[in-house]
Specification:
Distance between the termini: 78 Å
Number of strands: 2
Protein name: Small integral membrane protein 1 (Vel blood group)
Radius of gyration: 24 Å
InterPro entries: SMIM1 (IPR031744)
Keywords: Membrane, Transmembrane, Transmembrane helix
GO molecular function, one term: protein homodimerization activity
Order of helices and strands: EEHH
Helix content: 55-70%
Number of helices: 2
Strand content: 5-15%
Pfam families: DUF4731
């Protein structure tokens, strides 16, 4: 039985606040780290600042209308006269 070889890939972004460590011998771990950082940047942009507040307000208004319409339709069919 031979011991498995593995390596540690350590990367540091320029702002110094995020460190990435991935374990493994294939290149998929590096691409998944890059993909995760891309998704993290997109979520940071959409969920913080003025754009984040606008997205949360629009999401809340849309959720309100969906619940309102479902409640209206449910009440209409429950209380419909026969």
């Amino acid at each position: 039985m031979q011991p498995q070889e593995s390596h540690v890939h350590y990367s540091r972004w320029e702002d110094g606040s995020r460190d990435g460590v991935s374990l493994g011998a294939d290149t998929r771990s590096v691409s998944s780290t890059e993909e995760a950082s891309y998704c993290h940047r997109i979520s940071q942009k959409l969920c913080s600042g003025k754009l984040g507040i606008a997205m949360k307000v629009l999401g809340g208004v849309a959720l309100f209308w969906v619940i309102f319409i479902l409640g209206y339709l449910t009440g209409y069919y429950v209380h419909k006269c026969k």
